Amino acid sequence: MPISVGLEKLGIAGSQDLKNTLVVCDDPLQAIEEFQDNNRILLDSLKPALRLMDLLSVHRYDFHRSVVDELKEKIIARVDVLVKTLEDKKNVEKLETLLDNSFPVIKNPVLQPVVFKVLQAIPKIKDSYLKQIIDDKELYRQVPIEVKRHIWKDNQDLFSEEISPVFDEYVKEVENQLLSLSEEGMMSPMEASVLAWAPKYRRTNSATISRLSQLLGTSSRHLHDLAADFLRSTYLRKRACDHYCTLRAAMLMLAHESEAAGLAADMASREPIRKFCWLLDACMRDHQLDKKRVNELQQILDKASNSRTRSKEEWRILGDLAMLLADPFAVVTVGDSMVKLLVQCAQGESLPRKNEDLLLLLRLMALASRSMELLSNDTAKEPKMSAEVVTQFLPYMLTLLVDDELDEWKSKMEAIAKAPSDMEEAPQPAKMEHYAVPENVVRLLAEEPVCVGIALQVLIHMTHRSGEPWGGFVCLLAAVASDPRAVELAFLHQLINGLIGRASEFEQEELFDAVLDKFLLKKSATDPTVWKQTYRLAWNAVAHLPRSLRTRLMEAIKPKKKLADSLEPLYAKLVAKVDHVEKEAAAAMGQQDTALFGLPIAKPTA
Question: I want to staple 111 with a disulfide (CB 3.0 to 4.6 A). Which of 50, 77, 105, 235 is the partner?
């Protein structure tokens, strides 16, 4: 684009004027000289210097460009000074005047930085200027983000186009973390669950959150509220993707952590939600819900649920609280705290219904499980649970936890009672007890969404108990396997992490059948997420499986045609590992045979 763009609008002759002059003139050289005199820098002492530079072969273009660049830097520096004192109306007027004088050259590549700098600095941009920017798509893409924020306040469509892809990028980012999508990450045990990362660490290390922070800025409540509305709509439209809830919490914490006190004060009407989010964030950071925070959460929840005369905004608060609780990271924290309280009930020989903290956490889990319903209805009330959840379902969960603990101690005592000679023998896996889930519990799992959420957390807890028989785990997994939440990425990520820690126990055929055949492989028909989590488990289990189960596993997890492109590289790595395992097993068997016949064992050559 020529550097003379827009100069005519400022009364400065441009290339077209020179062309017209040359067309009608009799002496082109004289016309060019007159054009230079008429449009030169109006400084009398400069004219002789220009003649001297001509003799020195310094082009007029180079000289004028250097002058423009220096003046441009000085103007930008002056604007930076004015920005610091915008409370003085005179300085605002100076910026407005400068914008009026410079806006005509906004598409001039040389002068454009000056115009953009003024647009960034000015508190309010005229609608006529914003309209010109909107009408020119190329210019709209170029203007700084601060200018776009002025546009977005009155143009929700453009804001939606800009921010909606960021929402989807965030979901992909979290899913990639949970899946470890690279082949190297997929085929190595996870060092720690992504869901255990501190919330602030997740926010500060997320490229998408950084991008979102740039888009929203720190001074406009309107954009923050508008983004929240779009996020709610996206969550309701796409359904079954709770990572949008994680993003909702991150957006609130961005406002909370912002250095702009004005934004915090401007969001006063959202104070209950912001405080609730801050409390949850602190609980996730500490991986527990302490007594003080539990009481504060309950007070906010009681106020949101019991208000009789509420505006539409106040009705929405309950839905927002539910959305925050549906964040998978919050579900993990609340669910883990619930399981710990159930264990405490068992140790203290008390009933769940007598533990007030447990009942509050149950209430939080119930809200999380109904977040869609509460968000889609502005007049929705807190969902009522069946009393059987407290009187029958929680006691059954308690029974499973107690039975598993008793089975674990029974296995340990049997091992201790064995004679030393027996202990030297290869340990035999503990016999798996068979449980049957009562009909009333099966019914509650089908009718009450909160029951499934609790059962999933109990399953995760069971995978981290070393050396316990798997009977309770297997029966509970079979009871929830048909629920869609059993194959959600956040749950599978935790479940597989726990199972990887006990991969050596998959030599038990009953456990192999329950987890792989009847659950993962049954659910993975066309779901690449389940396939990849299955591959993670298989990678860590194949070395411990007897050859018959290993062969059966590799045949079962062979990629189907629809998913072959994405899974073939991972499957090839698994095949290579199985070959390596079998070669090692054959070599070990050969060494045992040689030692058995008293023959020397050949040392491997280097």
Answer: 105
Measured over the CA atoms of residue 204, residue 206, residue 209 and residue 214, the dihedral's sign is positive
How far is it, in rounded angstroms, from Cα 454 to Cα 362?
9
Longest dimension (CA), the chain: 120
- Cβ-based neighbour number of residue 510 at 10 Å: 14
* Distance, CA of 215 to chain centre: 17
Report CA-CA distances (Å) from 301 to 284, 325, 361, 481.
18, 11, 12, 32
Helices marked H in 126-187 — which ranges?
127-135, 137-142, 145-152, 156-179, 183-186
Distances (CA, A) of 144 to 182, 365, 397: 35, 43, 56
| Distances, alpha carbon 53 to alpha carbons 35, 38, 71, in Å | 18, 19, 20
Burial of 326 (0-12, 13-18, 19+ CB in 10 A): buried
What's the confidence (pLDDT) of residue 595? 53
**Sequential DSSP letters for 494-536:** HHHHHHHTTGGGGGSHHHHIIIIIIIIHHH-SS-HHHHHHHHH
Q: Which pLDDT score is estimated for 88?
A: 86
- The structure's pTM equals 0.81
What does the alpha-carbon distance between residue 78 and residue 72 come to, in Å, rounded to a whole number? Answer: 10
When pLDDT is cut at 50, 70 and 90, the band that residue 593 belongs to is low
What tokens appear for 595 in the block? 């030692």
